[in-house]
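User: I'll paste a sequence; please echo it back and then give the predicted structure.

Assistant: Echoing your sequence first, then the prediction.
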Amino acid sequence: MEDYPRTLLELERRFSSDDACREHLFHLRWPNGFVCPRCQGRNVWSMSRGLWLCAACRSQVSVTAGTIFQDSRLALWFRAMWYVTSQKNGASALTIQRILGLGSYQTAWAWLHKLRRAMVRPGRERLSGLVEVDETYLGGLEKGRHGRHTEKKAIVAVAAEEKDRTIGRIRLRRVPDVSSQSLLPFVEDSVERGSTVRTDGWPSYQRLGVLGYKHVISVIGEEKPKATQLLPHVHRVASLLKRWLMGTHQGAVGHAHLDYYLDEFTFRFNRRTSRSRGKLFYRLVQQAVQVGPQPYRTLIQPAEGQHPNISRPVE
């Protein structure tokens, strides 16, 4: 049974102490009962200082060890997660620092980036049915560059599922270029085989039919309807993404960290119709307890290929 606070007042009442937060995390991390990470034993005794003792191997286990919450004040973390999920457009690091009274901007920035790493659920279902796919570009104008040619802009592949003539779920991924080696893996990872994929006439998408998709091509030309009419869902998503980056984050998002901002936008967009902010909070906590530690050095300098959505070659 999903158990989560419905209001800020209920959150404050239930999770005002680190001990109460640990108890909640314990049930989320081991929903089917405790399993010792060392010996797989299932019997455990509660100890002081938020530790549990495995009855089999006698190892001491902390519910936050090996998670993004390691060595942190849980009550503050819970408030941060509530604020992040309760705000329709999210929050900047400066806002989180002010709301929580954190000592530095760097701490608030790091906390938000750790939470973004928890916004993608492993094994999530692929899009299905009718799915539009296209690319969008983030960055200023480039002189002498037109169409899909760019040197400085970030290229983001967009997939938008159609549901009841409106936009269903979406997937976003930064890609290095618009070649088939970059775009086809994105489609394979994002869309269930057998689905109908609608694209423009860009040659990189030509092999979609061979890969098991029903490929519908909407040709865009001078005398044809505009791209926003032929592929309305992906262009709407791209427009909202750019507005969100400029509004909430003032456009101050570098290419090195863009993947994780795309994850946050996807998390929010796919849950935009949820009536319960408490349930979004619950989902974020549930996923966050499964994410490993994220040292500050790895946050400021993401390793090449570190992001789970990095493009892979087509086999």
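The chain has eleven helices and eight strands. The beta strands are 44-46, 51-54, 60-62, 130-138, 154-163, 166-175, 196-199, 214-217.
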